[in-house]
Amino acid sequence: MGAAYQRAVLVVLGLGVTLPIFLAPGHVSGPRLGDLALLLALPLAVMEWRRMTPVLKAAGPVAAAFLTITLLLQASQVGERLNAGDGAFWFRWIVAALVAPAAASLIVRDERRRRLFFAAILIGAACHLATYGLTLLVGLETLQGIGLASPRAVVTTVGAQVRITTLAEHPNAAMAMIGLAVPAGVILAGRRWVGRPTTLAGFGLAILGFVSTLSRGGIAAGVLAVLARIVVGWRWRERIRPLRVVLAVCLLAAGLLALQTGRFDVDTGRFAGRFDRATLEDNLAGRMLTWGRTVDLVLERPMGAGWSSADEMGAFRALSVSHNGYLFMARTVGVIAALVMLGLHLWSAARLDALTPLSVYLLMTLFTEDLTQGAGFVFLSCLVAALAWRRPVAP
Predict the structure, then answer these.
(1) Fewest CB atoms within 10 A around its CB: which of 63, 185, 215, 320?
(2) Which among 240, 204, 236, 245 is positioned nearest to 222, based on CA atoms?
């Protein structure tokens, strides 16, 4: 019974990261699959306690206690009350802090459980991408009625560049979730990862995700994850097979060619616009202004200001955007927690083992978007932080 529970929890946690299905269709900020996954995984912290290393045993309770104290300090400030948005936000962080060390211990110790978790991430990414196709077949309103799209989901057109979003509500967040198929695929592939089916599936999902979202951050993170896997191969003295590399590139090129010459008309100008030099410069300038404004807010309240939704910000809606997961965490949870999280993520990436592509991917995506608010990426952030204490995991 315990083994079946472990497998089920890892599957739901993996799906919850990349497939944020709405459990209450029609509600803008309703609970998602990731929230349910965290709730179901709470007993895992108790079941894994005896098998966890001393550091992981202490990490969960200490982190949860620190977050709870921060929450109480914020709630005790004059004129502020804990609302539903705050409750959901802090629930995700506190429960994720308790669950992540247990999940990390299980993933590192048991290869079968590890493969199951990353297979769930890969499948979830594929299902997330499928919602874009369903939008064209059945319409956005139908998907919203069954919880496969948010009421905020829209098809946006910026400079004649159409960007689609459904489950994740923002194209950048959607691509970050779909792009997780790349590190998941190479981790599942093992030592001979070049040209393996899971690797090609991860690449294919990432490319199709970019076609829908036009998000540069997710593609860049996937490329960095692959480069990290190459470095890991050198670290573990793997044999590089040039023919496999050529085959993988040819297969991806053939797939793109089939899209261009087949039933699908790929508008190359639509993609080129996302990499136009002037566009990139304007985007970077805007992000630097956003980062500077967020740093000012963090300096004003270094212990964090808690959750604030766009509706609550009103005319100051832009203040709720940071375009950086670590800055967003510093503004909401506090600068101490954000710096600790960043340090542990860097440490996890520096392990140079089988799980390094995941750490590198997470670092890149968090530096480009406010992802430390949804249940899936909150859990993933805590998981990678807990994995910083792992023993080396062979590819």
Answers:
(1) 320
(2) 204
Torsion of CA 89, 92, 98, 103, to 10 degrees: -150
Instruction: With CA atoms as reference, report the closest residue to 348 among 311, 391, 294.
Output: 391
pLDDT band at 279 (very low <50, low <70, confident <90, very high): low
Model confidence at 213, pLDDT cuts 50, 70, 90, reads: confident
Identify the sign of the CA torsion 23, 29, 33, 39.
negative
Backbone angles phi, psi at 296, to 5 degrees: -60, -40
In angstroms, the CA 264 to CA 320 distance is 38
Angle, in degrees to the nearest 10, between helices 2-18 and 171-179? 140
Percentage of residues in the chain having pLDDT higher than 90: 49
What value, to the nearest 5°, has the Cα angle with vertex 321 and ends 277 and 84?
155
Query: Residues 37, 12: contact at Cβ < 8 Å?
Result: yes
| Position 391 pLDDT exceeds 60 | yes
Residue 313 has which token pair?
Answer: 């910000």
Query: Taking the chain, what is the end-to-end CA distance rounded to the nearest angstrom?
Result: 29
Work out the angle between the directed axes of helices 111-138 and 181-189 (0-180°, nearest 10): 140
In the chain, the amino acid numbered 144 is Q
